[in-house]
């Protein structure tokens, strides 16, 4: 079942026009949200990121789009798919209504909410071999547009194809200044000694929900120092640990980058703290 503009319909009946602006121009934003037994994880952060993304895209935010209304819409599609007692992943997409070319005929929006089951209620530590490489064919542009989850993910798609063709589990993206920005599917953290480092939003980094949670956790944990600053590709092989974060997987430790093998002590410790925070809401 799919929520299409507030109506619950069967998936096969959820139709969008070929003139949809999300399809035609990437004129769309979205949120990927984790839900555990009907509880929306980090809902406030997701809500404010969605509102910020819509504002950046100059979309007209409906007056009905309160946190309570959207939470009810999400819970409605969870119930319609019989996932109220199961872990699941929500995709909440917002698109500008069709009309116009590059200049939209309207700033009004439509939305689609879908739900699919997930295996585990909380984040599990995965220490399977996980090798990464730099993707240098195309750049992420530093600036505000790169910080939102828009429908335009061409660099991520091409990087994923490159990783698949070359036997890597993931790739790291760089910006026009040759600084490392993030992974194909999440934010990047680097550990050196007691310092936990992640690139700043000004480098074109996605405003990740788990990124924000981990920044707060590290700041409050004795023995760790947080640093938000640009990461050079040369720093990667000098690091003690690298790990990737997103809402779906939590923390994914990197085991290898080129000739360097990494430990995963800090990432394992932070994952346990993240699970505690998720349980507490």
Please tell me about this protein's structure.
The chain has 7 helices and 16 strands. It has 281 residues and is α+β, with helices and mostly antiparallel strands. The protein has a 6-stranded antiparallel β-sheet. β11, α5 (209-220) and β12 form a beta-alpha-beta unit. It starts with a strand and ends with a helix.
In short:
By secondary structure, this protein is α+β, with helices and mostly antiparallel strands.
Summarize the helix and strand pattern as letters: EEHEEHHEEEHEEEEHEHEEEEH
Largest sheet: 6 strands, antiparallel
Strand arrangement within the widest β-sheet reads 2-1-6-5-3-4
Number of continuous helical runs: 7
CATH topology-level name of the largest domain: D-amino Acid Aminotransferase, Chain A, domain 2
End-to-end Cα distance: 27 Å
Q: Compute the gyration radius: what is it?
A: 19 Å
């Amino acid at each position: 079942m799919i929520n299409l503009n507030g109506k619950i319909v069967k998936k096969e009946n959820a139709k969008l026009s070929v003139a949809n602006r999300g399809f035609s121009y990437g004129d769309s934003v979205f949120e990927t949200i984790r839900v555990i037994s009907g509880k929306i994880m980090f809902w406030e952060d997701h809500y404010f990121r969605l509102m910020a993304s819509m504002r950046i895209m100059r979309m007209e935010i409906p007056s009905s789009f309160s946190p309570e209304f959207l939470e009810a819409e999400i819970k409605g599609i969870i119930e319609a798919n019989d996932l109220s007692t199961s872990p699941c992943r929500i995709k909440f997409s917002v698109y500008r209504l069709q009309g116009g070319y590059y200049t939209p005929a309207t700033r009004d929006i439509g939305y689609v909410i879908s739900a699919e089951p997930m295996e585990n209620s909380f984040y599990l530590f995965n220490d399977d071999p996980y090798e990464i490489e730099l993707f240098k064919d195309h750049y992420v542009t530093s600036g505000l547009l790169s910080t939102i989850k828009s429908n335009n993910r061409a660099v991520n798609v091409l990087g994923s194809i490159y990783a698949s063709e070359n036997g890597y589990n993931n790739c790291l993206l760089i910006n026009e200044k040759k600084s490392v920005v993030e992974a194909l599917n999440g934010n990047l953290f680097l550990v050196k000694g007691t310092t936990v480092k992640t690139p700043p939003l000004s480098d074109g980094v996605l405003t990740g929900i788990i990124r924000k949670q981990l920044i707060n956790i590290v700041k409050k944990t004795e023995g760790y120092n947080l640093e938000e600053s640009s990461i050079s590709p040369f720093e990667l092989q000098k690091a003690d640990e690298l790990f990737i974060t997103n809402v779906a997987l939590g923390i994914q430790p990197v085991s290898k980058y080129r000739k360097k093998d990494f430990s995963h002590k800090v990432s394992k410790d932070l994952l346990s703290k993240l699970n505690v925070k998720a349980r507490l809401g």
